[in-house]
Amino acid sequence: MEKNLDSLAEKVHHLESLQQRFVHKELKKIGLNMLQARTLDFLAVYPNVIQTDLADYLGKQKATVTNLLKVLENKNLVERKQSTDNARQKKLSLSTSGNQKVLLIQAIFAKLDKKLTGNLATSEIDELNQQFARLIDAF
């Protein structure tokens, strides 16, 4: 079967691969992987959630999230505090160091956005956003 390297789907896939490599490399510089970064970013937006909410967001099993949180706690990025509503639940929040890491994560994605749009005019960026919205809606 012949692969069409000029197809839009192939170009989107290639761009996604390049983005993933870029983000992975940048996150590695700050001592994180993608799952850890997604966790910190989620906790920055939704402080004091429970582990089940995080597992649902990440699409991971509870045991995987438990191990992930242990690593982030050991790095002093996440804190677990007993819920006042339910003694069996722990609320998750970012530590001061975790909040600082989130700023670094956001800077990485701002750098990625700049890399993607740096050679484009504002009108081209607007047009691309409209076209991507249409492509996403098709699914």
UniProtKB/TrEMBL annotation:
User: Which parts of the sequence belong to the HTH marR-type domain?
Assistant: 1-137
Entry annotated with the keyword Lyase: no
- Tell me the InterPro entries matching this sequence: HTH_MarR-typ
Domain of life of the source: Bacteria
Alphabetically sorted, this entry's keywords are: DNA-binding, Transcription, Transcription regulation
Pfam families (UniProt xref)? MarR_2
This chain's protein is named MarR family transcriptional regulator
Higher taxonomy: Bacteria, Bacillati, Bacillota, Bacilli, Lactobacillales
